[in-house]
Write a structure and sequence with these properties.
Largest sheet: none
Number of strands: 0
Distance between the termini: 40 Å
Number of helices: 7
Structural class: mainly alpha
Oligomer: single chain
Length: 126
């Protein structure tokens, strides 16, 4: 069973590496932009795609932004924790208010599950 798990993991890593090599020039640039954004602050998947594809952001096509973001190995729950802590460093939130902010389409765009997890890792929910 352990050998099977190792083979599956190796297969997935090989597939993702090969897929990443198939990115177009704009998609590779969008990956670089996405990695830079993620090095500075927390982003949800949808928020990062929105930032990369916005006319007020980077201006990549939505398709290129989506492909770039999906090629990354991102722990979105960890990103939600980062975002929650960043909000709390600026102002106070109730637990439910923080979850709403994190999950709102007008806010960060995390899934409800990611937003709840992120908020629960902070003092707002403890």
């Amino acid at each position: 069973m352990k050998i099977l798990k190792v083979a599956i993991i190796a297969s997935l890593l090989t597939a993702s590496t090969a897929w990443a090599g198939d990115l177009t020039g704009p998609q590779k640039n969008a990956v670089r932009s996405a990695e830079q954004y993620l090095s500075v602050q927390g982003f949800s998947r949808s928020g990062l795609i929105r930032q990369l594809s916005s006319d007020y952001g980077d201006g990549y096509s939505r398709a290129d932004a989506t492909t770039a973001v999906d090629s990354l190995n991102v722990d979105w729950r960890r990103q939600a924790v980062r975002s929650a802590k960043q909000y709390l460093s600026v102002q106070g939130f109730s637990c439910s208010g923080l979850i709403r902010q994190l999950s709102s389409d007008a806010g960060d765009g995390y899934t409800q599950s990611q937003a709840t997890y992120g908020a629960q890792q902070t003092s707002a929910c403890q």
